[in-house]
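re the bet — no i am not wrong, look at it urself. input seq straight from the record:
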Amino acid sequence: MKNYATSFIELIDRESIDLSADDRDSLNYYYASVNIAEGLPVDSPERRWCAMAQDVGRIAHMLGRLPRSGDPGATAEIVEWISKQSVETLNAFQRAWLGSLPGYET
């Protein structure tokens, strides 16, 4: 898996006033992904996005490509979520996460 997190970890040490709006949003999503890894509840839009991204990632890495309808584990919700990402406004963290998935094209 491509290392997508390093540039976002570096944002932690910067003053928040020095961060762009995209940097702040990306950092919130980075923290959400860490929260999920620590077992905290999926109770915010950031955590919901990260939880779904992790579900998609597990299947994508198993298949070597993005899941499609009919693939093992590819629920209708997962397939719909994947298609929505191409039209959503995403921050740098979200774009980097998706870009690390096999078969994801921007």
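see?? The chain has five helices and no strands. told u. also The mean pLDDT is 91. so pay up
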